[in-house]
Design goal:
Layout: H1 4-11, E1 25-31, E2 40-45, E3 48-54, E4 60-66, E5 72-76, E6 86-90, E7 95-103, E8 106-112, E9 118-124, E10 133-138, E11 141-147, E12 150-157, E13 162-166, E14 175-179, E15 183-188, E16 193-199, E17 203-209, E18 218-223, E19 228-234, E20 237-244, E21 250-259, E22 268-276
Antiparallel strand pairs: 1-2, 2-3, 3-4, 5-6, 6-7, 7-8, 9-10, 10-11, 11-12, 13-14, 14-15, 15-16, 17-18, 18-19, 19-20, 21-22
Bound molecules: calcium ion (4 copies).
One calcium ion binds at residues 32-34, 36, 38, 40, 54.
Length: 281
């Protein structure tokens, strides 16, 4: 009966320890921004981007890093290999990299690309040169290559609302899925050419995971206007199935596979969580 702790963990109820007075929130990153070995929280909202420093005792001290509405925030070592995570802020007007100087209150902003509406982003070293590159999904989606801390657009893609990298064709080079206006588009390495388009109503959230433990990554899709989808990778391409029909729109999805052996539950179980909101994009 050793598996019970895992089951209890899954069902545990978490109580909020602190509230924040932000306007509508759109994104969150949980990383150790100040390298004190304690995770901190960064939130993108209509209020801006706020960094909540965690003292490890449930106390969070907030610092506003960006004061205009933000649609997403991501953390990665984008500029300098100094060990400090930088932030990418995605907004409806501009996108900025906030360079982490190692000082909690001092982040240097760098403008990324032109003024345009952006919704989401994802980071990956798509060309395997050791520098983390940026994909921004927006009215025009763009891939920005990172050449020793200098970012330049190198390829444009259709309008997108979410993007997620994964090496789904297992060649060792990152591929990605893009949530476009009415479809999910798959772009495959080595040249990031369009591989497959799967129809959807209004996809807004993507999450890769191997739902059936066959060694091939599958994609969970949150749809804001129709059924959420599970798109399975097969030997012959992709196969999409509806995984629920919901009354409220879905805009984000997180998925993970749990293995619990020998007792009660099947050998492999899958939980797919789809988070709903009453607000359309
Ligand atoms: Ca920290
Ligand atoms: Ca790179
Ligand atoms: Ca690949
Ligand atoms: Ca699979």
């Amino acid at each position: 009966m050793w598996a019970y702790p895992a089951l209890v963990c899954l069902l545990q109820v978490f109580n909020p320890i602190s509230g924040v007075g932000l306007d509508q929130c759109h994104g969150v990153a949980c990383v150790d921004l100040d390298q004190d070995s304690i995770y901190d929280v960064i939130i993108a909202s209509d209020s801006g981007v706020d960094y909540y420093h965690n003292d490890g005792s449930g106390n969070f001290t907030s610092i506003r890093l960006y004061s205009d509405p933000a649609n997403a925030v991501l953390a990665g070592e984008l500029v300098k290999d100094d060990g400090y995570l930088d932030l990418l802020v995605v907004t409806s007007e501009e996108n900025r990299i906030l360079v982490n100087t190692g000082n909690d209150t001092n982040f240097n902003p760098i403008l990324l690309g032109e003024t345009e509406v952006s919704h989401a982003a994802a980071l990956s070293d798509f060309d395997l040169d050791g520098d983390l590159d940026i994909f921004v999904a927006g009215d025009t989606s763009r891939l920005y290559g990172n050449d020793q801390d200098s970012f330049a657009p190198i390829q444009s893609f259709p309008k997108g609302f979410a993007v997620s990298w994964a090496d789904y064709n297992s060649d060792g080079v990152p591929d990605f899925a893009l949530a476009a206006e009415d479809s999910v588009l798959f772009y495959a390495s080595p040249n990031l050419t369009l591989d497959t388009a799967i129809g959807a109503l209004a996809p807004r959230g993507l999450c890769w995971f191997d739902c059936n433990a066959d060694g091939m990554l599958d994609l969970a899709v949150a749809d804001s206007a129709g059924p959420n989808l599970l798109i399975k990778r097969t030997l012959f391409g992709f196969s999409a199935q509806e995984i629920d029909t919901v009354s409220a729109p879905s805009v984000a999805v997180a998925a993970r596979m749990y293995r619990i052996r020998n007792v009660i539950l099947p050998p492999v179980s899958v939980w797919v969580k789809v988070y709903h909101t009453s607000v359309d994009w």
